[in-house]
Amino acid sequence: MNTVEYNKSVDKYADGMFRFILKNIKDEDKARDIVQDSFEKLWRNIENVNYQKVKSYLFTTAYHTMIDLIRKEKRKEDFENVDVKEYSHSEQYSDLKEVLNIALEKLSDIQRSVILLRDYEGYSYAEIAKITDLSESQVKVYIYRARKNLKSFIGSIETLV
């Protein structure tokens, strides 16, 4: 890979990576940092990355950087101050986007990531498996469980509209 291809990669994939990371961690500054770190890692490894595989490399790097950040932050959380109301749902919403975002937040990190990669970014099961270091069957199971959790949280679409 050369400098021109690197610059094309930045133009082509930075926005998609930012959206993917932002959907997962809900913090624009952290999402920007993760995207920047991913491109920095690509720059340091530019001679070893094939341009045809740069998208997979970038999303995999961003995903792993995000997971590292999430794990680091979880160690800092105080688990004894959990508000039960935060995890219950009793109100009816009319804003479907807000309901979907709340539902996505309720998913585990891995379920949220595979759902976002599949349904928001349009990756295939094989690509998601490569990005997340899971087998293709594990990816399918996580997506199935995530969709099942989303369905049980959201309920029927008629109750939302």
Automatic annotation (TrEMBL):
Signal peptide segment: none
Presence of the UniProt keyword Cytoplasm in the record: no
The RNA polymerase sigma factor 70 region 4 type domain, residue ranges: 103-150
Alphabetized UniProt keyword annotations: DNA-binding, Sigma factor, Transcription, Transcription regulation
Gene Ontology BP term (one): DNA-templated transcription initiation
Domain RNA polymerase sigma-70 region: 11-75
GO molecular function, one term: sigma factor activity
InterPro entries (alphabetical): RNA_pol_sigma-70-like, RNA_pol_sigma-70_dom, RNA_pol_sigma70_r2, RNA_pol_sigma70_r4_t2, RNA_pol_sigma_r2, RNA_pol_sigma_r3/r4-like, WH-like_DNA-bd_sf
UniProt key word Protease: no
NCBIfam families tied to this protein: sigma70-ECF
Family: Belongs to the sigma-70 factor family. ECF subfamily.
Protein name: RNA polymerase sigma factor
Originating species: Marinifilum breve
